[in-house]
Amino acid sequence: MITADGSTTIHITEWDEQYHSKHGAIQEAKHVFIKNGLLLFANRKISVLEIGFGTGLNCFITFLEAPKMNLEIDYVGVEAYPLAAEEVEKMNYVDQLEATEFSNVFNQMHKQDWEISGKISPEFSLTKRKQFFNEISDENKFDLIYFDAFGARVQPELWTEEIFEKMYKALKPEGVLVTYSAKGSVRRAMLAVGFLVEKLPGPPGKREMLRATKKVKS
């Protein structure tokens, strides 16, 4: 389907759920994950974990924005159910982002084999891991987590204390998790595992979003 800003997303009929906001897939990605996440880490070498690689939109935008922030990025995308090639081909992100010179990069991101680290550019490496989110066992590895799982309405098991405990452990001290969700139950789950949680203005169509920081315990 075409979202409000002209960019595509995938609609899952049986859940009545989209991969991205119907109010604008690109606008949502830039607001939640870039403006309120990536921008905090300018002029650094960082590791990013994406929960829900999906269409590759967040990864591609991160690749495009990283040079503007002088970032070197090791990007890990976790996805249990990868898209089919014919679904990827219907995504119009390259055109909508006016990034035709990097169309080969978007294709490479999807065609790259799973479970290996590949160099997308000298400053951007990508590893795609085919696994369920409850199987994540990284510790003190990531500076930033893009938490972009399907909503708690359709997959509440992905928004529990158990999952956010795994996210907390996966982050380095002072690491940050950003998500489009602002549900009270999600905020409480984050707080319960030790995160410092902020409510921030949301992307188009949403009043608020959440940002959680792994504070060093004194």
Radius of gyration: 16 Å
Top CATH class? Alpha Beta
Give the CATH architecture: 3-Layer(aba) Sandwich
Number of helices: 7
Query: How are the strands of the biggest sheet laid out side by side?
Result: 5-6-4-3-7-8-10-9
The figure for the number of domains is 1
- Given as residue ranges, the uncertain stretches (5+ residues, pLDDT < 50) are none
Give an overview of the whole structure.
The protein has helices spanning 25-35, 57-65, 85-88, 93-96, 103-111, 161-170, 184-192; strands at residues 11-12, 17-18, 45-51, 72-78, 117-121, 124-129, 142-147, 171-179, 196-201, 208-213. With 218 residues, it is of the alpha/beta class. The chain has a single domain, classed as 3-Layer(aba) Sandwich (Rossmann fold). The strands form two sheets. An eight-stranded mixed sheet has the order 5-6-4-3-7-8-10-9, sandwiched between helices. Strands 1-2 form a two-stranded antiparallel sheet. Helix 6 links the parallel strand 7 (142-147) and strand 8 (171-179). The radius of gyration is 16 Å and the shape is globular.
